[in-house]
What we know:
63% of the residues lie in helices and 18% in strands. By secondary structure, the protein is an alpha+beta fold. It has 2 domains: 1-40, 3-Layer(aba) Sandwich (YefM-like fold); 43-95. The longest helix has 27 residues, at 46-72. The mean pLDDT is 94.
Amino acid sequence: MKFLSVRDLRGKSAQVWKELPETREMIITSNGRPVAILAAITESNLEESLSAFRQARAVEAAASIQRRSVEQGTDKISMDEINVEIKAVRKKHAR
């Protein structure tokens, strides 16, 4: 996998677009940190690529929520406690 800075992407865009079909993916970095993935697609695999990307983002979002839950200790809340919390929020919003 190739890493490419934002500066290089701006300055060498013609070269990037030429290399992308063969490289398949490039990681775009800003200040040495990854910020984006540039992936080669075709008309025939556009929908599949978007679906896979969205699924990966959903899995990461769920994992992030689980990590936060463990950090905050909310992973041990019972269903009764959850239902009480839901009721309180609904009551607050009903006003």
